[in-house]
Amino acid sequence: MKKYILFLVAGVLLSSCEKTVEGLNDNPNQFTDSPISLLLNHSLLNVASIAEAEPARIAAIFTDQLTGFDRQYGTLNTYSTNAATYEALWEDIFQRGITQAQLVRAKAQEGGNTLVDGQASILEAYYFAEAALLFNDIPFSEVNNPEFPDPKYEDQETVLRAAIALLTQGASKAGTSSAANNVFETTSTWGQVASALKARYHLALGEYQNAHSAALQANFTSRSNDWSISHSAANYGENLFWQFEVEQRQDYLRVQNSYMSRLLKAGEDIYRGNAKTDEKNRYDYYVSSANGLSYNTTDGFAAQTASFPVISFEEVQLIRAEAAARLGVDDDALVAINLVRASNAAKYSSTYDPYVLADFDADGMASNGQTTVSMALLHEALFEKYCAVIGLPVYQDVLRTNNAIGVPIKNANETTIPQRFIYPASEEASNSNFPGFVDQMVKTDIYN
Q: Quick one: pLDDT band at residue 14, thresholds 50, 70, 90?
């Protein structure tokens, strides 16, 4: 593993230099430390490299929300990846994410800044949990500890539970403060964000009662609660999907014939529309009207200034809905689903009339081919989240449910989508505790 040792240690080691040579080789242009606000801002900004950038694009390809079309994205579309594919992601998580969050925590604790300590704890939890979900076992407790230059790998469940504990700890310190800043736009507090993330990770662990409780505690009542990365028309401030299509790799990534686009397109045999649901405007939100093949960079999810939710109102309510359905609390599952439908009606200026439980009977319009109301509600929650949330959360849903929504397998030689991301080569080269190559088609432990 690359040695992610906290660079503040260097200042302590240098303090023993003799005073007679002190300052002799000082370079006023060389940084020896950074203010806590700058480090925190970096840790916040780096979230986009996980939630909105290459990992999200790969996850959307694997789950057939989007279509890898040209050059290396054409090969990604048939699941051709290797260790090099994930090298930058590993660095984004560990060097630019976890290390910076730990630096912030150390400085906050040293200065008695409880608020920033809590914020950094929530960010650190996010990075560790997302890494564990994608890679399975990862370095955790020994990361950035000088006594362990080759940190051990710890099992996926242990890391996820520790991340949940970090979220609880962070919320206890920063819970009542606003989670809005110059990177994120939201009406939520840090406590609400922490609860929303706990709902996501409890769901991944199959702990449905805990997921349901955390989703309720998050109290995301509208899209204004989304913990969203803010974007502008300023250079490098644009939506990252917009940047990828317009400025970087035009037509590498499309919606062409994707499973998601077909679910939303009237006339397709799998169209989700019914007497209470008109998906045309949502289809247009994702698909370019110019050619019907590219994703919408004009006024849709990938518009230049469109914010990108790291965790959204829709995700939280649909976690609540799925968990309630699995727990047999059908009335509450229906409430959560209808909250999302009401939000859809406003967002897309279209018809999403509220469902009633009878719609989920075996012969109801929303039965999804299921024979019980609870199972139909469960499938509705999964399908709705698939069409409402782009990227990593949906990838985890498909893995966790053994592809309950029937995402097509895009490689004729495979029977499943990739189950994990591959450890980067830098780990094999630099960490003696590297667990060895694990094929991407091997399930992670919590979904095995």
A: very low
Considering only CA atoms, which of 416, 401, 148, 388 is closest in space to residue 286?
A: 388
Give residues with Cβ within 8 angstroms of 250, minimum separation 6: none
Tell me the C-alpha distance between 161 and 195, whole Å. Answer: 14
Please name the residues in contact with 429: beta carbons below 8 A apart, sequence gap of 6 or more: none
Confidence of residue 27 (pLDDT cuts 50, 70, 90): low
DSSP for 174-186, written as a single string: HTTSB--SSSEE-
Q: In 3D, which of 439, 292, 312 has the Cα closest to residue 384?
A: 312
pLDDT in tens, 407-423: 999 999 999 999 999 99
Token code pair at residue 128: 């560790």
- Contact residues for 413 (Cβ-Cβ < 8 A; gap 6+): none
Q: Which two tokens stand for residue 25?
A: 């080789």
Cβ atoms within 10 Å, residue 232: 12
Residue span(s) of the chain under CATH 1.25.40.390 come to 34-176+189-219+418-448
Q: Are 181 and 162 within 8 A, CB to CB? A: no
Looking only at the bridges linking them, the beta strands covering 227-229 and 253-254 are unpaired
| Closest of 99, 84, 23 to residue 54, by C-alpha | 84
Per the DSSP assignment, residues forming a β-bridge with 184 are 229
Residue with the two structure tokens 């949940």: 164
Cut 0.85: pTM above it: yes
Strands (E) located in 41-104: 67-68
Fold of domain 34-176+189-219+418-448: 1.25.40
- Say if CB 370 and CB 376 are below 8 A apart: yes
Instruction: Count Cβ atoms below 10 Å from residue 348 Cβ, excluding itself.
Output: 17
In degrees and rounded to multiples of 5, residue 311 shows phi and psi of -145, 135
β partners of residue 352 = 277
Phi-psi region of 95 (alpha: psi -120 to 50; beta: other; left: phi over 0): alpha
- Structure token pair of residue 232: 């502008």
Query: What six digits make up the tokens of 390?
Result: 């782009």
Residues 423, 57, 256, 304: what is their CA dihedral angle, to the nearest 10 degrees?
A: -160
Determine the pLDDT at residue 252. 97
What is each CA distance from 121 to 174, 243, 330, 406, in whole angstroms?
9, 30, 35, 37
